[in-house]
Design goal:
about 625 residues, about 55% helix
Length: about 625
């Protein structure tokens, strides 16, 4: 092994180790790969940065925008509501309809977005029908994964695999190349869940802290809010008069949240509750306290007493806080769950200035998948954490638009609260989506041109603004893909791909290309349980092509095996964001995924080994 080959192997091993350990963010690791390739002179700067200008990456960026418009206009919400109506209340019918419908939606838009969209509705149905969410949510997540295998744009690995063929000078996959195999796999997966799901899926009630779709009133009681909410009155002589909420800094100094403020000149104690409700408003950092302000605060009684004593505030012990003080047509409470790639993960609420930036108060913070209450002041935020927030409904549901960061649960639903502000543009989005698919299928334009044309049309038609388009792009994924493509290039240039390929072909080549394909499929499946499916496809698609060239066979079946296997992230809750997303809501354990996932992978493997050579002859 020569020097360049050794260096690339070290970079590859270190990158994979960091991906698995999660000691650094995946996009930071990808940037580190780019820098390492340039510093070691393994690639010229223009080659090391070429991944960020690749047609693969640009197609994915444009499709993020198209998917954003589908959610922004409420088209996805309308489709989700229709699916739930069709599914009914029977367990078997619900399971099958959810799997198939989720797969179809995921064939065209983000699978994570589809699961996030469907999750609150499914939980609501489970509550009404007394069906355990654990019977439905893994099948729904698996359906989303199968959806990635239905079309060229179903998941980034498909685009990566197709573009790898183009780069090597071979015929790429077309839009529906994946569909016959994908539909067969979806049908087999749905049949397996129908026959065995009731036995292998747990019948487990969701934790009280799990992702339930409760009404605000139920949340008020469930979180026992009256027990740590108190009323304070600002006296004329209080040192608080003339200062701002930011000056007081109650959370940092006293671990006290100011939840609501009302100002009534010379209030009459007999009518205090009604007057406070009539004049209440959420706090803002620049609000200046006045005499006779009435505050609703949250915290321990000792800390509140300390703040009241230091600022000469009166505690109104005879006026307990009730639902009507926090929940009205204008303000309310809701549960909010952190998404897998939320920008605030790893930081504290104070570090992200949550109250200032989102104009909401966090009343409670629960750890993902458990009942453990985290310290609002010091705890770092993790994927799956659930926040109970309070504030104006418009601010609560503004979080719905930040689809990469939050899932908003609870009532009223987004449609009722105006979170989708362009529902009149839903039909325009649908027409553009259909036109884009037609252009790709008929090969009028390449994928990258068709997807960018669709994105531009949606922006010009007002379905999504340019600022919203930027927000809807998953920049972490963009950097990850752009940074890993040059590593694939380096693997080829230094001869590592040829070395790996030669070793496998020399060992298994006599057994035939189907055995080689099976080995490549299994390696891909194992890697995708630990790494990003896109990274797995970027690294292994060139190896599949090199194997085909050594065997002197058509590379399409081997590359198709890589693409399909990269989507089959069934066996662990961390293999795919859709798996992790339903873990808390279904009260699942790691073994639940392994038990169902390994059997599903076996079914997919057998079908793929039979059908791929038929659909894509060697």
């Amino acid at each position: 092994m020569d020097g360049p080959m050794f260096l690339v192997l070290v970079i590859l091993v270190v990158a994979i180790g960091l991906f698995i350990s999660e000691k650094l963010r995946v996009d930071v690791v990808a940037l580190g790969v780019v820098v390492a390739l340039m510093v070691t002179a393994l690639l010229k700067p223009e080659d090391a940065l070429a991944g960020f200008a690749s047609t693969t990456l640009m197609s994915i960026v444009a499709l993020f925008i198209v998917g954003g418009a589908v959610f922004q206009t409420g088209l996805a919400n309308q489709l989700g509501e229709g699916i739930i109506r069709i599914a009914g209340t029977d367990l078997t019918r619900l399971m099958l309809v959810l799997m198939i419908a989720t797969a179809i939606l995921s064939a065209f838009i983000s699978s994570t977005g589809v699961v996030a969209l469907m999750l609150p509705a499914v939980i609501s149905v489970c509550r009404k029908t007394k069906i355990a969410p654990s019977k439905l949510l893994i099948p729904m997540a698996y359906g989303a994964l199968f959806g990635g295998a239905l079309t060229l744009i179903g998941t980034p690995p498909n685009i990566v695999a197709s573009d790898a063929l183009v780069q090597a000078g071979f015929q790429p996959f077309n839009f529906f190349s994946f569909t016959p195999l994908g539909l067969t796999l979806l049908g087999a997966g749905a049949l397996f869940m129908w026959a065995a799901g009731r036995f292998i899926l747990p019948d487990r009630k969701a934790d009280q802290s799990a992702q339930r779709m409760e009404t605000p009133e139920e949340l008020f009681d469930m979180y026992r809010l009256p027990e740590n909410l108190y009323r304070l009155r600002v006296r004329d002589e209080s040192r608080l008069v003339g200062t701002t909420i930011q000056d007081l800094n109650a959370r940092e100094r006293y671990e006290v949240n100011i939840v609501s403020i009302a100002h009534v000149d010379r209030p009459r104690l007999a009518d205090l509750t009604a007057m406070a409700r009539a004049h209440s408003f959420p706090p803002t950092p620049d609000y200046t306290f006045k005499a006779d302000d009435l505050l609703i605060v949250q915290g321990s009684i000792a800390n509140i007493n300390q703040m009241a004593a230091e600022y000469n505030l009166t505690m109104l012990a005879n006026e307990p806080v009730q639902q009507g003080d926090l929940i009205t047509n204008e303000v309310g409470i809701a549960e909010v769950i952190l998404r897998p790639r939320a920008s605030i993960i790893g930081k504290t609420l104070a570090e992200v200035k949550f109250g200032t930036n989102y104009r909401l108060t966090v009343l409670n913070l629960l750890s993902a998948g458990s009942k453990q209450v985290k310290d609002i002041k010091t705890a770092t935020l993790d994927f799956g954490d659930m926040m109970l927030v309070q504030g104006r409904w418009e601010d609560i549901f503004a979080l719905k638009k930040k689809r990469h960061d939050f899932i908003v649960m609870g009532e009223p639903e987004a449609k009722m609260s105006g979170a989708f502000i362009r529902e009149n543009r839903a039909i325009h989005t649908l027409i553009v989506m259909i036109a884009m698919v037609a252009i790709i299928v008929l090969e009028i334009l390449p994928l990258v041109a068709a997807s960018f044309l669709a994105a531009l049309a949606l922006i010009l038609m007002g379905c999504i603004t340019m600022d919203e388009a930027y927000d809807t792009i998953d920049w972490k994924s963009v950097v990850l893909i752009g940074g890993m493509i040059p590593l694939s290039t380096a693997l080829v240039r230094v001869g590592l791909v040829d070395a790996i390929t030669t070793g496998i072909v020399d060992t298994l080549g006599a057994s035939g290309p189907v055995v080689i394909m099976g080995a490549l499929f299994l390696v891909t499946v194992v890697m995708t349980q630990m790494l990003s499916n896109t990274v797995t496809a970027v690294l292994l698609a060139p190896i599949g092509i090199a194997m085909a060239q050594q065997l002197n066979v058509n590379p399409q079946p081997l590359v198709m095996a890589v693409a399909i296997a990269a989507s089959m992230a069934f066996a662990t809750p961390i293999a795919s964001p859709v798996n992790t997303l339903v873990m808390s809501a279904g009260n699942y354990r790691f073994a639940d995924y392994t038990r169902a996932g390994l059997l599903m992978i076996l079914i997919v493997f057998i079908i793929s080994m039979v059908l791929i050579p038929v659909l894509f002859p060697f």
